[in-house]
């Protein structure tokens, strides 16, 4: 694999990861942007802090790609908010993302393990 | 996605972010923070709201547009801050763009728009001619019939020929312009009467007295009453039934000029005379529709084939070779208008170029003045790309405003043009701004904006940010290349203005020459009018002669009338008849079997009434009117020189017609008179012959003398001691005493007739002079701008020079020299361009060479003097600089 492609892969991975996390979060039910960031933060045990500067561009990109749908609704605290909902297409994407993620983790793990062995 | 969706999305996002902040704040409040702290913390946590919104929106691909709109708003703000600059720039552009758009819309209406007929691109016009003798003309009547029968290339073929009728039975009698057309014509053009019907093939062949009238005539004479259909009017005192009214927009034929419209169309119904006429009369227009798949060339071949079969029937000893050609009707209609319109478009284009150069110059100066601002912004981290984009947006915004104003200006100009354009242009009734024109305007605006803005914008950001800050004021070292660019722009403007000045100078000199041209007669004291005796009431030549004899006698006895005459044609109205004759003992030269002249039959004291000078021999006398008098003719000097070269024409004899073997009687030349202009004064003189009206029936072979139909149209010519227009009612009254129904048409003082022929050239000259004046003004503004700016910029240098001992006069001269150097270079470049380009004007010139020294020297002088004046103002300011003040200001 050429270096350039590898670099692109890395970008894709990072981007894809946030997308995947958002889609995963939405699988539990529709949610607004703030809720998504809170949810990711809580489920990661306060480790992952999603930047709003990444979250909203990602949400709008997902919406444009048809993986999520958005609708204005009242939240539980009676606040008008834009709720995102995963679509059928989004669910398929989440499945394939998750599979790729699994492969990626395994591959990286393999590399890390091999490196240790060589040293 | 539409712009509406875009803006909805934008508010949507703002709301979304706001709801995020509210929920985050609410959570914090729930955890016990004070609302104010909570809000602040939520905001901090969220980050840069605007940036995030921008980045998010970018996901939708709309950021570019939003940035452009922001740039445009910024540009507008910048432009509002310097109203002087903005006003100058916008007006300059509006003039440039408006001029081009106006001229282009005339071109679009006249040259480019398809003719208002069915599939006009398949319509062609047929021509015939005689080699060496008659250039491509129309067809003899029999050929119209023959070609519609024998052709293989056309689905339809129609003939037409103009006719005038005295109309009575519909209000006051008047002379109507009519067109005789074959029944095939209207269906071929795809034109139908809006009321009633067109005439049929049957009616055409049976000479049925039916007429289709124009919308205008219907309104004027029948109050747009549908009952007009079926009514009877008298045309030349023969009753015709009105069967149809054409739509308002219908015009045929599409002759040049606003007043070419016809009042009615009647069946062609060729007379037996017309059907037999073989050679003489090439005046029946023919239009045909190409069969599908047939090309213009193939149609030409087909016509040539048919013409060859006609030629085969002409005895070879006549040596007659017929020529023919087929032309697209569209091309034919607009052909004559092309040189003028192209010249106008070129002129307007040059003005736009000058305007562009001017604007670029203004922008350069402005960019130079804002170097410090750019320096600061660059130092603070602004991307060069951003500044470039903003500068370009600024020039585009300027161009847009200019373009908008330009279109408004163009609308006004086109309104004006519709009233004042010369009659030589066809289809003027269709003049209006149409969408292709607006498209052109938009394109022009965009190109102008980018063209003008690019160089100055680049120059503006090229400067090294730090240096421009350090220099503080506009220092001496500033942009040598910018100086050069501004100089070049000013030179370009001058060169372009020079080109226009030379062009308008050439036209002015042509006009001057035209005015100075002797028409060959004295129009000042002459009144003229056209009478046309209807054949119904004046069936024989004797009756016609008797009427005119009586009329001229009565008019001649009026106290203020000095002499009175009549003729079948009068000068300058552009009518030529082409008649063939063969001088006695003539041997064919250069394939010419006969000679042609324009001829004219005169009645009474025509030459004295017109004051056409006798050069040799004698005028006609009353003796020539005797039925047994020898046949005589008078020829013009040109005719004498061309047709009897090297000998005295007086006393020579000739026969009318093109047949050297004919038995027609011999006619003797008894006098030579001065040349008169048959067309406008800038048209060439054609050899002219005059014969007594009373002898017109006697020029034929003895057995044909009685067969020819009487000539009944005569122009009355009155030479009066008083004012010609004051005589008009008297003339009308005298005519009506003899025949109360007879229409007196084209009644004008002869001087007006002459002036009318000048309008077309007056217009050409006027408009080009106006263009040249605008170009001059813009170019001078350019020079002034460059010099004035360089004086401001170099105030310090000038002050130092003066402190070191330079006199005010030296400073003045130095600055002036700078202006003159620019002007000189511009004039030189303009001269070279003029040398190459003015030949394209040749068809618009009269008696002036495209490289006329007077026009060129004149243009150079005007430009030089004006440039000196434009340079003098800033030069004097330079000379009045107070060295101490200027230096202390640093």
Describe this structure in words.
- The complex is a heterodimer of chains A (119) and B (890).
- Chain A is built from 4 helices and 3 strands.
- Chain A is of the alpha+beta class and 119 residues long.
- Chain A has one domain (3-118): Orthogonal Bundle (Arc Repressor Mutant, subunit A), CATH 1.10.10.
- In chain A, strands 1-3-2 form a 3-stranded antiparallel sheet.
- In chain B, the strands form 2 sheets. A 6-stranded mixed barrel of chain B has the order 3-4-9-6-8-7. In chain B, strands 14-15-20-17-19-18 form a 6-stranded mixed β-barrel.
- Helices cover 51% and strands 16% of the residues of chain B.
- Chain B is elongated and about 130 Å long.
- Mean pLDDT of chain B is 84; it is low at 472-477.
- Chain B is built from 27 helices and 22 strands.
- Chain B has 4 domains: 3-61; 133-320, no CATH class; 337-516 and 757-888, no CATH class; 534-741, no CATH class.
- Chain B is an alpha+beta fold.
- The chains are: A alpha+beta (119), B alpha+beta (890).
- Chains A and B meet through α2, α3 and β3 of A and α1 and α3 of B.
Strand content of chain A: 5-15%
The ordered H/E elements of chain A are HEHHEEH
Q: Distance between the terminal alpha carbons of chain B, to the nearest Å?
A: 56 Å
Radius of gyration of chain B, in angstroms, nearest whole number:
37 Å
Low-confidence stretches of chain B: 472-477
- Give average pLDDT of chain A, whole number: 78
Our measurement of the CA-to-CA distance between the termini of chain A, rounded to an integer number of angstroms, reads 24 Å
> Numbering strands along the chain, what is their spatial order in the largest sheet of chain A?
1-3-2
What's the CATH H-level homologous superfamily of chain A?
A: Winged helix-like DNA-binding domain superfamily/Winged helix DNA-binding domain
Q: Under CATH, the topology of chain A is which? A: Arc Repressor Mutant, subunit A
Sheet with the most strands: spatial strand order of chain B: 3-4-9-6-8-7
Largest β-sheet summary of chain A: 3 strands, antiparallel
- Please write the CATH class name of chain A: Mainly Alpha
The amount of helix of chain A comes to 55-70%
- The CATH architecture assignment of chain A turns out to be Orthogonal Bundle
């Amino acid at each position: 694999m050429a270096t350039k492609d590898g670099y692109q892969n890395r970008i894709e991975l990072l981007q894809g990861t946030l997308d995947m996390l958002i889609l995963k979060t939405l699988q539990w039910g529709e949610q607004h942007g703030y809720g998504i960031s809170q949810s990711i933060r809580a489920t990661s045990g306060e480790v992952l802090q999603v930047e709003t500067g990444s979250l909203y561009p990602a949400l709008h990109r997902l919406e444009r790609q048809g993986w999520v749908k958005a609708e204005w609704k009242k939240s539980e605290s009676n606040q008008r908010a834009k709720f995102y909902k995963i679509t059928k297409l989004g669910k398929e994407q989440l499945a394939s993302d998750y599979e790729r993620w699994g492969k990626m983790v395994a591959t990286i793990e393999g590399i890390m393990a091999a490196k240790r062995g060589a040293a | 996605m539409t712009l509406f969706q875009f803006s909805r999305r934008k508010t949507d996002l703002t709301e979304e972010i706001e709801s995020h902040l509210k929920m985050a704040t609410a959570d914090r409040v729930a955890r016990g923070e004070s609302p104010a702290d909570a809000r602040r913390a939520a905001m901090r946590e969220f980050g840069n709201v605007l940036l995030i919104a921008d980045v998010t929106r970018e996901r939708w691909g709309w950021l570019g547009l939003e940035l452009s709109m922001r740039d445009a708003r910024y540009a507008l703000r910048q432009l509002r801050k310097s109203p002087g600059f903005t006003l100058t720039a916008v007006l300059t552009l509006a003039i440039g763009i408006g001029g081009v758009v106006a001229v282009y819309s005339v071109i679009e209406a006249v040259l480019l728009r398809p003719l208002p007929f069915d599939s006009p691109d398949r319509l062609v016009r047929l021509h015939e001619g005689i080699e060496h003798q008659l250039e491509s003309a129309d067809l003899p009547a029999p050929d119209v019939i023959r070609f519609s029968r024998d052709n293989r290339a056309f689905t339809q073929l129609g003939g037409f020929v103009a006719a005038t009728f005295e109309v009575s039975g519909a209000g006051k009698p008047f002379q109507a312009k009519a067109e005789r057309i074959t029944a095939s014509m209207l269906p071929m053009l795809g034109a139908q009467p809006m009321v009633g019907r067109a005439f049929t093939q049957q009616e055409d062949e049976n000479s049925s007295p039916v007429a289709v009238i124009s919308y205008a005539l219907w309104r004027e004479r029948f109050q747009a009453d549908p009952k007009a259909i079926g009514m009877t009017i008298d045309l030349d005192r023969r009753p015709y039934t009105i069967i149809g009214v054409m739509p308002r927009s219908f015009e045929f034929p599409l002759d040049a000029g606003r007043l070419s419209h016809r009042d009615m169309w009647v069946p062609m119904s060729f007379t037996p005379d017309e059907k037999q006429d073989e050679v003489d009369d090439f005046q029946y227009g023919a239009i045909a529709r190409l069969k599908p798949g047939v090309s213009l060339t193939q149609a030409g071949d087909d016509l040539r084939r048919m013409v060859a079969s006609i030629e085969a029937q002409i005895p070879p000893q006549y040596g007659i070779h017929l020529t023919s050609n087929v032309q697209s009707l569209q091309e034919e209609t607009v052909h004559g208008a092309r040189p003028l319109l192209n010249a106008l478009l070129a002129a307007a284009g040059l003005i736009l170029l000058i305007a562009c150069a001017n604007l670029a110059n203004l922008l350069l100066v402005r960019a130079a003045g804002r170097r410090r601002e750019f320096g600061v912004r660059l130092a603070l981290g602004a991307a060069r790309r951003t500044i470039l984009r903003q500068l370009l947006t600024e020039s585009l915004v300027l161009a847009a405003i200019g373009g908008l104003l330009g279109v408004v200006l163009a609308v006004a100009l086109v309104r004006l043009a519709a009233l004042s354009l010369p009659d030589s242009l066809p289809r003027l009734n269709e003049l209006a701004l149409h969408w292709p024109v607006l498209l052109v305007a938009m394109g022009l605006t965009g190109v102008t904006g980018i063209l003008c803005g690019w160089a100055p914008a680049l120059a503006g950001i090229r400067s090294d940010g730090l240096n421009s800050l350090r220099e503080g004021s506009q220092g001496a070292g500033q942009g040598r290349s910018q100086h050069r660019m501004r100089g070049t722009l000013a030179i370009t403007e001058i060169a372009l203005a020079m080109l226009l000045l030379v062009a308008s100078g050439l036209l002015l000199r042509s006009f001057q020459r035209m005015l100075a041209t002797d028409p060959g007669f004295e129009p000042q004291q002459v009144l003229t009018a056209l009478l046309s005796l209807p054949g119904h009431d004046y069936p024989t030549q004797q009756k016609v002669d008797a009427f005119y004899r009586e009329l001229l006698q009565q008019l001649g006895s009026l106290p203020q009338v000095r002499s009175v005459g009549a003729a079948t044609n009068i000068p300058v109205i552009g009518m030529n008849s082409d008649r063939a004759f063969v001088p006695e003992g003539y041997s064919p030269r250069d394939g010419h079997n006969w000679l042609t002249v324009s001829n004219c039959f005169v009645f009474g004291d025509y030459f004295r009434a017109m004051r056409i000078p006798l050069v040799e021999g004698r005028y006609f006398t009353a003796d020539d009117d005797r039925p047994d008098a020898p046949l005589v003719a008078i020829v013009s000097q040109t005719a004498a020189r061309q047709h009897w070269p090297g000998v005295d024409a007086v006393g020579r004899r000739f026969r009318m017609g093109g047949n050297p073997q004919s038995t027609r009687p011999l006619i003797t030349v008894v006098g030579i008179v001065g040349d008169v202009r048959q067309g406008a004064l800038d048209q060439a003189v054609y050899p002219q012959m005059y014969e007594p009206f009373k002898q017109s029936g006697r020029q034929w072979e003895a057995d044909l003398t009685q067969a020819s139909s009487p000539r009944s149209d005569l122009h009355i010519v009155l030479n009066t001691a008083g004012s010609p227009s004051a005589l008009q009612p008297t003339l009308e009254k005298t005519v009506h005493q003899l025949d109360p129904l007879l229409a007196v048409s084209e009644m004008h003082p002869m001087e007006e007739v002459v002036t009318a022929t000048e309008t077309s050239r007056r217009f050409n000259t006027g408009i080009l002079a106006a263009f040249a004046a605008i170009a001059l003004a813009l170019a001078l503004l350019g020079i002034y701008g460059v010099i004035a700016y360089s004086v401001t910029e170099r105030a310090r240098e000038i002050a130092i020079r003066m402190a070191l001992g330079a006199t005010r006069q030296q400073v003045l001269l130095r600055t002036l020299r700078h202006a003159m150097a620019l002007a000189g270079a511009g004039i030189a470049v303009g001269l070279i361009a003029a040398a190459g380009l003015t030949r394209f004007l040749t068809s618009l010139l009269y008696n002036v060479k495209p490289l006329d020294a007077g026009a060129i020297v004149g243009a150079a002088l005007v430009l030089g003097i004006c440039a000196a004046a434009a340079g003098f103002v800033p030069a004097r300011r330079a000379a009045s600089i107070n060295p101490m003040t200027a230096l202390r200001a640093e």
